[in-house]
Specification:
Elements: E1 3-6, H1 12-19, E2 24-28, H2 47-50, H3 53-56, H4 59-68, H5 70-85, H6 91-101, E3 105-110, H7 116-120, E4 125-127, E5 130-137, E6 143-145, H8 148-159, H9 166-172, E7 182-186, H10 196-205, E8 208-212, H11 224-230, E9 234-238, E10 251-254, H12 257-271
Parallel strand pairs: 1-10, 2-3, 2-8, 3-4, 8-9, 9-10
Antiparallel strand pairs: 5-6, 5-7
The structure holds nicotinamide-adenine-dinucleotide.
Length: about 270
């Protein structure tokens, strides 16, 4: 049974566990980016209140929408890209990168596609659901990372139309050196997750796993903390709401990640 902790009373035992660890792994979800202005699936009034994830988040749903309601695709892309364009790492992402600099943390495994862990300075980030700023050739599989500036220049060019124009979309999409179409390298519902073997390997080497801002209902990603727990890691969850991870959690710190992670970092720095 987990120990529920209120954020302003983080016990010394938990800080000691972090400070004496040799391999902290962070497993993050949409919640860690909430305070960067990117809504989670469950935020009221967020993107996913307006757009159905089953419709815009599956290959079949997207194709059907392009054919039948292209204006909805355009509205979705415009709104979601605008949210991403303005997002910068928050105190939570920065605290995670500081833990790497202190040589306590080696790996971040994230379900997010927003690139914010990398922007914050983490160097070993496993992105299970891909990266919005990377393209993948649908013919040969070659991947190419764009800078945010490059990405939004391309997006602005494609989206600067009042009505959805399929021809314009096709002609603006980048091409691979092999001639194939480059698609955005994010994992849609029903598509295989990326680097899962690598993530399991890192999870099974962790002695502490910080599970941050994830509801634990999206599989197979949600099995990562289970693998870490079975291999002997202590599991610390940071989330304002209890998640689906149930009894595998050793501590649940009830609070927002930007506040709690900063607080943990300050305590760790005080001790070491
Ligand atoms: P989710 O939307 O299912 O759950 C978000 C979780 O974050 C909830 O448990 C919520 O209580 C918690 N949360 C909300 N605000 C928080 C805060 N300030 N601090 C800490 N926790 C907070 O997200 P999920 O579990 O990551 O799964 C959803 C899927 O959607 C993932 O596959 C992810 O790829 C994708 N997604 C990504 C982004 C992004 O890249 N930033 C944003 C939305 C959705």
């Amino acid at each position: 049974m987990h120990k529920r902790i209120i954020k302003d009373r983080i016990p010394q035992e938990l800080i000691d566990t972090i400070v004496t660890s040799h391999n902290i792994v962070v497993f993050s979800g949409a919640g860690i980016s909430a305070e960067s202005g990117i809504p989670t699936f469950r935020d009221k009034g967020g993107l996913w209140d307006k757009f159905n994830p089953e419709e815009v988040g599956t290959p079949g749903g997207l194709l059907s929408l392009v054919m039948n309601h292209p204006e909805r695709v355009l509205a979705f892309l415009k709104e979601s890209f605008e949210t991403m364009r303005n997002a910068i790492p928050n105190e939570g992402h920065i605290a995670v990168s500081e833990l790497e600099k202190l040589e306590l943390l080696k790996t971040v495994i994230t379900q997010n596609v927003d690139n914010l862990h990398t922007e914050a300075g983490n160097t070993n980030v496993i992105e299970l659901h891909g990266n919005l700023y990377r393209f993948r050739c649908i013919r040969c599989g070659r991947k190419e990372k764009y800078s945010k500036k490059q990405f939004f220049e391309l997006a602005d060019n494609i989206l600067s139309q009042d009505e959805f124009n399929f021809e314009k979309l096709l002609s603006s999409i980048p091409r691979c050196t092999c001639g194939g179409i480059m698609r955005i390298d994010v994992v849609l519902f029903g598509e295989p997750v990326q680097d899962m073997d690598l993530a399991y390997a890192e999870a099974s080497r962790a002695d502490v796993m910080l599970v941050v801002g994830t509801s634990g209902v999206v599989y197979p990603a949600a099995s990562i903390p289970v693998v870490a727990k079975r291999a002997g890691a202590k599991i610390i969850e940071i989330n304002p709401t209890i998640s689906g991870f149930g009894d595998i959690i050793d501590w649940w710190i009830e609070g927002k990640s930007a506040i709690v992670l900063k607080q943990i970092l300050d305590e760790v720095k005080r001790v070491i």
